[in-house]
Amino acid sequence: MKLGIVGLPNVGKSTLFNALTKAGAESANYPFCTIDPNVGVVAVPDERLDVLAKLYATEKIIPALIEFVDIAGLVRGASKGEGLGNQFLSHIREVDAIVHVVRCFDDENIVHVDGSVDPIRDIETINLELIFSDMEVADRRLQKAIKAAKGGDKTAAREAALLERVIAHLEEGKCARLLPIESEEEKLFLDSCNLLTYKPVLYATNVQEDDIATGNDFVRQVETYAVAEGSEAFIVCAQIEQEIAELDDEEKQMFLDDLGVSQSGLDRLIAASYKLLGLISFLTAGPKEVRAWTITNGTKAPAAAGKIHSDFERGFIRAEIVSYNDLMACGTYNNAKEKGLVRIEGKEYVVSDGDIILFRFNV
User: Fold this and answer.
1) 3-state secondary structure of 206
2) Phi first, then psi: what are they for 308, rounded to 5°?
3) Where are the beta strands (DSSP E) in 237-354?
């Protein structure tokens, strides 16, 4: 999963990025990897992996991974090259979802680029820059589609009609994800366009420590805005995330308990991301390694096998499956098998979250 972090300058975006990537690396014992100055890879915390590692006396734990792309603080005119924003807009086109960090705190020591805290105005400032960038992309695609349609390409003609609708929608200042979609064909085409405002968005409402448990009026404004467009919003305190990034798991939980919250910002972000994108994890386990694999909810067994290796999907025979909860209740794989809880499933089986799978294949 690849998430792009955007926001105005001085909203806590870089603090959050640095804290989340470091915390994620430590909590899962996965080394922080810097691909370039603006990209970090972290592990998805999953306590099931640690439990399975003990059960199987495994040599290695490999968690699912999230890649964070930290986009330079966008300002008005970013789509036209103002600030550093335009330099990084191309990076965010490849992400699965956008994490929009919104300032939801007052602090006279931290200057706001617009002179005051107004989360909805800030959201719309960012959205407008992304809309401008999308209009350019959509217009280029439209010109190509029109040219192909004149040559008799009926698919191109349908694409041109859709792009005209998209551009008219964007010109009204509306994000592409709010455009009514009339068919699966339209959805697949829009997916291929990589429009920034078509991507699902999570709003990270950055608050001060005192508001981390209950939020504040700024947070509630963002939550209302998010619900109206079918998005998700969650509370985070970038400063606290930075502090707990230095703690071990036990100290971290004590710190969070004192604050009156059960999960860190990273955990809440990951949970919200999985929910928004419709993702689940299946597991593989054995003495060599225990590993989590991220797939879309509704994925059938052969496609899940293909996440491991294309040969697994191509030569799929069957899947031997036990749910994590059943395995924990039985204590061992053999006990689960004796109780009939290890199932043999074929090509039509839809994988569930927490399925522990052994794929059989022949190429």
Assistant:
1) strand
2) -80, -50
3) 279-285, 290-296, 316-323, 343-345
Instruction: Name the DSSP letter for residue 179.
Output: S
The set of residues, in sequence order, having a beta carbon less than 8 Å from that of 145 and lying 6+ positions away, is 156, 157, 159, 160, 163
Rounded Cα distance between 276 and 98, Å, is 11
Enumerate the H helices of 151-264 as residue ranges.
Answer: 154-171, 184-193, 217-228, 238-244, 249-259
Contact at 8 Å (CB) between 70 and 2? no
Say what the pTM is: 0.81
Evaluate whether 351 touches 281 at the Cβ level (below 8 Å).
no
Task: Give the span between the Cα atoms of 355 and 281, in whole angstroms.
Answer: 8
Q: Which of 232, 140, 271 is nearest to 195 (CA)?
A: 140
Closest Cα to residue 156, out of 166, 167, 141?
Answer: 141
Spatial distance between the Cα atoms of 118 and 115, rounded to a whole number of angstroms: 9
Residue with tokens 């191309």: 90
pLDDT tens-digit readout, 96-149: 899 999 999 988 777 666 678 899 999 998 899 889 989 999 999 999 999 999
Residue carrying structure tokens 């870089």: 14
Beta strands in 63-143 (DSSP E): 65-70, 97-103
Q: Which of 342, 212, 328 has the alpha carbon at shortest distance from 265?
A: 212
